[in-house]
Amino acid sequence: xxxxxxxxxxxxxxxxxxxxxxxxxxxxxxxxxxxxxxxxxxxxxxxxxxxxxxxxxxxxxxxxxxxxxxxxxxxxxxxxxxxxxxxxxxxxxxxxxxxxxxxxxxxxxxxxxxxxxxxxxxxxxxxxxxxxxxxxxxxxxxxxxxxxxxxxxxxxxxxxxxxxxxxxxxxxxxxxxxxxxxxxxxxxxxxxxxxxxxxxxxxxxxxxxxxxxxxxxxxxxxxxxxxxxxxxxxxxxxxxxxxxxxxxxxxxxxxxxxxxxxxxxxxxxxxxxxxxxxxxxxxxxxxxxxxxxxxxxxxxxxxxxxxx
Length: 308
Hints:
This protein has ten helices and 14 strands. By secondary structure, it is of the alpha/beta class. Helix 3 packs parallel to helix 5.
């Protein structure tokens, strides 16, 4: 698949010497949803700001839709819609005028049919004549997204789009993001909510200390980097594990009815066969076995820990 954004050897050092990005390279595929994960200060917002033309890079190149962000800034900026973390709106203007005006900033002719569709998709149509000051925080967040979509961008950046909104609104936004992707919009999402990336992303990138730790297809990342957990449900309660079973990665649940074994899916041998043999030799009867894949959250924690 072709890349709609290509970042090559990108670095950014601010006055005072703080290096926010260190030789970052990243390709974003046309039509995908890419989730960027990383702790506060990892460099996610700086990278987005550079791609969107808000911050000037110290080194490196960025192309958007085949155009350099410096020499072809008119094209690249019109191709991008940005939903920033901070909500900045004219609180005394109406929803309709706010979104309609945003389209005009890109030199596009009025298209009230498109603005109506955006507002309806975001469940804002019944608020179109309301002033921003009268809206809830979640509704204001929707207006910011509507502004970013007013000029029909090919690429949409969502920088912590659901921060501070309730679970119901978050799920509504997930549905909207899927619809946008289906219409051909490429979406780059930064989030602190791991379930957001797990739910929606095609690929996941992890950034830490200004460096890209990994970028990989979500399911492949979970398969390659994840761990699995084997739960052995016992027929009778154990007060403690026998010495033979007291080994690394093995523990007894608090209720004494389950033995839990964590193992690495990348290892040549998982050790499960030997473990079950040991359990039988100890005369421990069990009712059931269950394996569970580790979550994207645990993979993220492990990757960031390795990168420290």
